[in-house]
Amino acid sequence: MFVGNIKNLRHVSQAFAGKRSKELFSPLDLTKKHHNLKEAAYKFTEEEIITKAAHYDKTMEFPWDIIKKAHANGFMNSEIPVEYGGLALDLLSNVLISEAIGYGCTGIGNAILSNELAATPIIIGGSAEIKKKYLGLLIK
Description:
The protein is mainly α. It has two domains: 1-26, no CATH class; 31-139, Butyryl-Coa Dehydrogenase, subunit A, domain 1, CATH 1.10.540.10. The chain contains eight helices and no strands. The protein has helices at 2-16, 32-49, 53-59, 64-72, 91-104, 106-113, 115-125, 128-139. One of its GO terms (molecular function) is acyl-CoA dehydrogenase activity. This is Acyl-CoA_dh_N domain-containing protein. It comes from Meloidogyne hapla. InterPro entries: AcylCoA_DH/ox_N (IPR013786), AcylCoA_DH/ox_N_sf (IPR037069), AcylCoA_DH/oxidase_NM_dom_sf (IPR009100). Residues 31-138 form the Acyl-CoA dehydrogenase/oxidase N-terminal domain.
């Protein structure tokens, strides 16, 4: 498993070293769907997160209203396969969503995007039964 990831580690180290690999993406690699998704995610962030982040920082309340809207707009659980109720967006789409939401508020961003920490190992290694049971819960 690790040997297969050495190539990916090289890309990461090159990115942090300021070197550009031909295999890393650039803004020119974005499709129209990617551009539309990026615009929608930034619009959501500007309207729903940035305008309310200070309130949640002060009150320390959980931002349920924002979470529900992010879920309804497809910004949560977007990596879950279609057969389990997800959108099965590609990695670049998920990066664009994460970037936009993190721009607004990293705390609220963590609340919105933390399901991916639980979903990813299930998607990679879970049986069909486990995927149906647990990924389905994230979609509801």
